[in-house]
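Kindly go through one protein, given below as sequence and tokens. The question is how this chain folds according to its tokens.

***
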Amino acid sequence: MIGVIASVIDGVLIGAVYGLAAMGLTLIFGVMRVINLSHGAVIVFGMFALYFLAAHGFVYTALPIVIIAGFGFGFLLYWIAVHRVIGQQELMSLLATFAVNMIMIGIGTALWSTSPYNVQVSLPGITWQGYTFTGTHIVAALIATLIAALLYLLLYRTRYGKAIRAVASNRAGAELSGIPTNRVLAMAFGLGVSLAFASGTLIATMFPFTVLSGQVYELKSFVVTVLGGLGNPAGALVGGVALGLIEGLATPFMPVSWTPVIEFGLFVLVLIAFPRGIFAFSKA
């Protein structure tokens, strides 16, 4: 019984990072109705950013650098690949972001191959009833929760956040009110990408990775997005913790290979019962 509880706790810690990974995806969808299929590749770039910064002595202190770099990358990516498909048929944005995804994977493979990489991080863990909770998992969960709290304050306590919510609610009305909607959309996309970069950084402290690792976390982000509510960044953290809880409960009782079956079975059930997610995004 103690082993099951320990597995659940560890799953919840990892789930908080899943939630952070999904926040960028759901923020972009909530603001501009774009499903970003380059999300996984962006997470991988965050992993490699930490890998190279760690070689110069940066680990957790690299987060501000990675977040700023991710914001700039996302801002540029918006104007290059996304700007012209805003408001078009959904297929246009899917194709545009999928093309970006393939380009990023191709560049990453050419630069770093598909060999596994690892960031060496040594942190003391916490031992309870003979089970040790890894220090990197604990710190990653705390940082993910802190970033989620800062995102909430940004969206609901700042002028910039009010502009984002106004554009998400009614773009035409926001333009009539004098809000520069194109710039707000670009900054929102940059913010979503920076969150994906940050999640990649935290994941790299916990697990080995390759250029292709982003596909797994992108799929998990879609599950979390549906659990937490489409377009609801706050719900993404709850959805991530829920997904981690499910993984933690399943691991002691069945092979790990069955975990995706459970996750995507739940994904389908939630889509049927709650088409917009459990916590529907409110435009108010």
